[in-house]
User: What shape does this take?
Amino acid sequence: MDARKNSSGRFESALLALDRLESERILMDTGDGRSPIMRVEQDVVPAMESIGRLWEEGKISLSQVYMSGRICEDLVKKLLPANSGGAKRSGKAALVVLEDRHLLGKRMVAASLSASGRSVNDYGCMDADSLVQRTIADGVEILLISTLMLHSALRVAKVREGLVRAGRPVRIVVGGAPFRLDGELWREVGADAMGRNASDAVRLLEALSGGGDR
Amino acid sequence: MTQSNGMTSMERVLTTLGFKEPDRVPWFPLLTMTGARELGLSIREYFSSGKNVAEGQLRMWAKYGHDCLYAFFYAPVEIEAWGGEVIYAEDGPPNSGEPFLSNPEEIPGLEPPQIEESPCLLKVLDAIEKMKREAGDEVPIIGVVMSPFSLPVMQMGFDRYLDLLSERPDLFRRLMEVNEAFTVSWANAQLNAGAVAICYFDPVSSSTIVPRKLFLETGFPVARRTISRIKGPVAVHFASGRCLSLLDDLAETGALIAGVSAEESLRELKRASRGRLTLLGNLNGLEMRRWSSRQAEDEVKKAISAGGPGGGFILSDNHGEIPWQVSDEILFAMRDAVRTWGRYPLDWIG
Assistant: This one.
């Protein structure tokens, strides 16, 4: 257990130093008897969660979170190549930027999910009406919505209304600066949960899927 | 607005910048699109001419009795001049569209826009000239620039810019050269038109976005070079980003004012900046739209109590723009609270 904690801690330090080579050496260690998926769950996921917490506490910056996510995303792709059976599909979930063209938040969430070995549908940027239609058409059960501006964040209420009208009990998780700076906003717009950092998406997706990744 | 003891907004602001106590705490509610409501126009129509914005600013100044006129149209007005896209909303600030730099390899061929050939910038200068004609020297007119270091978020997209910062120092340097030339000429054009000070928005330099070590290698030298060439006082605004750990560095850039975040303690910021930087902030603009009048009063009192003593403080929101959704009721409650609790000496503070 200590060795595992130690390896996760070393991995986190290497990520925060943006040391791609050292991160790779720790995660890909050939002497490590754990399966690739165990390495992801025991090293990558805890490191990304811890980095998310450090950002929330104001101890590290967004660029460090972003670069760490990118390094993890690349390493996990190497560790769990596509179609290897290692990656998990997280229910019928989709990730979207609502009424905005600023993609950083969505890219960070996608990197965190990918780094934890999970994949979701990427809807890119959409307006509220189109998002409701596509969510219904695809039978999506969990929507992860990223926003940057207040008026885009307020549009989540319109998405919720559209889904309620269609009788679709879709779970909505929101994230982005407006929600972080106004702690009550996610409830006001009818979301089920708010992610305070990109790696929160992993935990919330797990919880809202009932812990049963498919 | 001159108050009963005869101090104008300009005198009030200059006194606090000198770390002395004026008649009351100066109040900068950084009102932008709210002017459209005042004129009964859509946000798009409102920002289509300098005349509208000047009229909106002057009407709001008369109505709320605050201490500045704000020449900020919308964040991507500069991007429009570079050939980028602006997207309008009915209930929020115009936003930048697809970044116009789709490939970093385009950076070496990039040239700054010419102000006199950019209608979107000329309408800002027109608004400043009209405000100056009406208000004279009674109230400071605040011009606005995006910092050369933060502008690339809209020029090329945030993720691509962070990649560039870490992977392509050569292209980063070139981009900063071009952006610095533009920012300096754009700031000075606004000062020539009648702006009294420049608000230099630099959220990427905040410790929310980059670690201090990277700031010292990038945003800091850019700010120092740029601010030294701007021919007027400069406020560095982090647009809700944290800056407590940067205040010593910031004082070395030549900036006189720091726009501070609601996520940091105003009391600590005041302690760390005392006598070197005037603080501008730090009411939470997002929460503001849900406040009751009583909460507005409490928040104003709290901020004045932490930042007001000894001057060196301007009450404002923490983001540099009051949201569209903030009602008149809240703005009037803040105005009344500043007049009640912001009057010096602040004897009510325990």
Summary: Chain B has one domain: 9-341. Strands of chain B lie at 27-28, 69-70, 86-87, 95-96, 141-146, 197-201, 234-237, 257-259, 278-283, 313-317. The longest strand of chain B covers residues 141-146.
